[in-house]
Design goal:
Elements (H helix, E strand, L loop, with lengths): L6 H5 L7 H15 L8 H17 L2 H10 L25 H8 L18 E7 L1 H6 L1 E12 L14 E3 L8 E8 L2 E8 L8 E3 L11 E12 L8 E4 L15 E7 L6 E3 L2 E9 H6 L1 E7 L2 E7 L8 E4 L15 E8 L6 H13 L13 H9 L1
Helix pairs in contact: 2-3, 2-5
Length: 379
């Protein structure tokens, strides 16, 4: 989080900038760093992603309000809401009008841009143990994603064969047509059906990709899962998703966490809950007991006269705060176990104890029922 630049600084605007000026600044920066204008420039590619991320947040009134109040923590791109981390840049979507201005073409409502489009996101589910989620772990994930075809290098045509400009769209990849209505004439724009937006046609499709220019390949990535993730948390791997089109950036990979239950502990936020079973003698007389924690066993002194249901706290023995500082605590609930099997000698001694405490030791007599109690009361 600390290495992220301020979103207003990224776009070169002041806090409180108007929506129009924000969009104007985004257009300028997106044009400056767009991959089509900076081929093979990795630094420009990263800045292009940074600009898109900043605009995605600041152009949304709700996200912008959270960012103004809490900074990057309020719109955490690695740790989003609902107990997880995620969110992040989901694609151009609402940016189509901006890219239309940048790269040409008019757009009607609901129509797709023929300009650069971001690739789709990929979801990968992984299962973690309770301890792995608590303390973090490195995991290898595998998934299929699109890559540029190594045979035709993304062209879609068999190498050495002829290609020609699409006659339907004149190489534009999109066609326009006028439509009349009660409100006058409107210009509609849609992707060319003949060339599928490529702007060119070819005699022989590539034998490897069947003319698509892309192939699916298995990708393996080593991922650092941070300490403190929970069930349903989402880790966003930026730029590792599906290949974009027309020079657009790759999508993201969303790693969704599934955390297995623990046989001893129950998680409550960053705290850990544990039930400690002790004997009647330990509860009455006090004892030193051993309590398991996520970091190992610790000793704890049970005070004499401890009642069943008593709760005590082991400070700092819980789960680290995700992307933050400090740890939760472990809360231990004492359960006093009542013996279910005793021999005659043990029963005799327990009766002696009860007698010494002034208790009624006629345990064989059954409690009176409700109607018998009413009868006694009226007699």
């Amino acid at each position: 989080m600390s290495d992220k630049r301020d979103y207003y600084e990224v776009l070169g605007v002041e806090k409180g900038v108007s929506e129009q000026d924000l969009k104007r600044a985004y257009r300028k920066m997106a044009m400056k760093y767009h991959p089509d204008r900076n081929a093979e420039d990795k630094e420009a590619e990263e800045k292009f992603k940074e600009v898109n991320e900043a605009y995605e947040v600041l152009s949304d009134p709700e996200k912008r309000n959270l960012y103004d109040q809490f900074g990057h923590a309020g719109v955490n791109q690695n740790a989003g809401g609902a107990g997880g981390f995620g969110g992040g840049f989901e694609g151009f979507g609402g940016f189509e009008d901006i890219f239309g201005d940048l790269f040409g073409g008019g757009f009607s409502s609901g129509r797709r841009s023929n300009g650069p489009r971001r690739g789709q996101d990929i979801r990968v589910d992984i299962t973690l143990s309770f301890e792995e989620a608590a303390f973090g772990v490195k995991k290898d994930i595998e998934f299929l994603r699109t890559e540029e075809c190594h045979t035709c290098h993304g062209e879609g045509a068999e190498p050495g064969t002829n290609t020609s400009t699409c006659p339907d769209c004149n190489g534009q990849g999109q066609v326009r047509y006028a439509q009349r209505s009660l409100f006058g004439e409107t210009i509609q724009v849609r992707e060319c059906d003949r060339c599928k937006g490529k702007g060119k046609i070819y005699d022989t499709p590539c034998h490897t990709c069947k003319g698509h220019g892309k192939i699916r390949k298995k990708k393996k990535i080593s991922v650092d899962i941070p300490a403190g993730v929970d069930n349903g948390s989402v880790l966003t791997l930026r730029g590792e998703g599906q290949l974009g089109t027309k020079g657009g950036p790759r999508g993201d990979v969303k790693v969704v966490m599934r955390v297995r239950d623990h046989k001893l502990f129950v998680r409550d936020g960053n705290h850990v809950m544990y039930e400690l079973h002790i004997t009647f003698a330990q509860a009455a007389l006090g004892a030193e007991v051993v309590v398991p924690t996520l970091e190992g066993k610790v000793k704890y002194k049970i005070a004499p006269g401890t009642q069943s249901g008593t709760m005590f706290r082991l400070k700092g023995k819980g789960i680290p705060v995700l992307n933050g500082y400090g740890k939760g605590d472990q809360y231990v609930k004492v359960i006093v176990d009542v013996p279910t099997k005793m021999n005659d000698e043990q029963k005799s001694k327990l009766v002696e104890y009860a007698t010494s405490m002034g208790e009624d030791t006629d345990f064989s007599s059954k409690p009176k029922g409700f109607f018998n109690k009413v009868k006694d009361a009226l007699s």
